[in-house]
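Students often ask what a holo structure prediction actually looks like on paper. The answer is less mysterious than it sounds. You provide the chain, you provide the ligand, and the output is a string of discrete structure tokens encoding the 3D arrangement of the protein together with S-adenosylmethionine.
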Amino acid sequence: MLALLNGARTIYKIMLENQPQLIDRFGRKVTYVRMSITDRCDFRCVYCMDEEMTFMPRAQVLTLEEILFLLRAFCELGVEKVRITGGEPLVRRNVDWLMAEIGKLKQTTVLKELTLTTNGSQLRKYAVKLAEAGVDRINISLDSLRQERFKALTRTGNLDTVLDGIDAAKQAGFKRVKLNAVIMKGRNDDEVIDLANFAIHNDLDISYIEEMPLGHVTHQRAESFCSSDEVLAILQTGFQLHRSTSVTGGPSRYYQLAGTQSKIGFISPHSHNFCESCNRVRVTTEGRLLLCLGQEHSVDLRGIIRRYPGDIERLKEAIIKSMDIKPEGHNFNISEQPIIFRHMSATGG
Ligand code: SAM
Ligand code: SF4
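The corresponding structure tokens follow.
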């Protein structure tokens, strides 16, 4: 019986080793997909959305079954890490079913890690279900620890609900919980240290994100832009930081906070371009495969799925071919009006 099982495992491994891989013109191997499962959200963060947003008509949005089918194709092409995001992924109906089905891909494909980015508002309801579904790591956005300010930055969010969600996530048994904070000058740059202390006291990691010029928003982004180097300088006034070699497959640069378990990351698309090591693609809510966050090169995968339902080989062919148009890098410029009109919420941040 054991010999039979080992034999089956060997055949499976050979099959996996021989499957086509996703390698672009610059020799970069794509092993990471970020999937936006909804462009809708219960918050309206000032850097992410306009006050008035028009969301996508439902017929244009991929169904949960289509999302699963798409992710299976990617994982059969060597994708080892999937991040589910949005919009707010946890406002999508039956998201728990979807996460459990994606979790099962770890048994049948090379998928190793399933992660989720959320604003935390629904975590009290979903944290345990997500952990049971096989979600390994979870990122929770938290830009302020002050009630009024949190409300101003998210327009509709409630800080207590999010803090309660963070608590639920801590208890649910994920491998690691990380906070994400977008730092804006004059809005929350005076909370850089407080946010790090909150992470330390809760045994969480934290990443500071530079604001990106995605979509039209009401403020002038150039005025609020705060670089990672500025955030690092603030942190160095209060903490001893040691550069860490830790990598998570993402673009963060990490530092270890001396005397704690917490890591501090910086996501710096402007000041520290990370394109040369890019290993990822994104899929928008409507099934558009985006080869770069800061460019418009894309392939309409929804069209293929709906024209040829169930034809996974045809879908895989299109994904392999898309590698030919993955751009070398983005060319964000915070002082210009957005050249990318997609909001982060539709793209899948
Ligand atoms: N709703 C979830 C959340 O807020 O975590 C997931 C989607 S959100 C688009 C993903 C991440 O993108 C969040 O950490 C958010 O702070 C970040 N984000 C949104 N718009 C951004 C922008 N223009 N520049 C930089 N980060 C942005
Ligand atoms: Fe919603 Fe996340 Fe965008 Fe905030 S950052 S508006 S929570 S999608």
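The radius of gyration is 20 Å.
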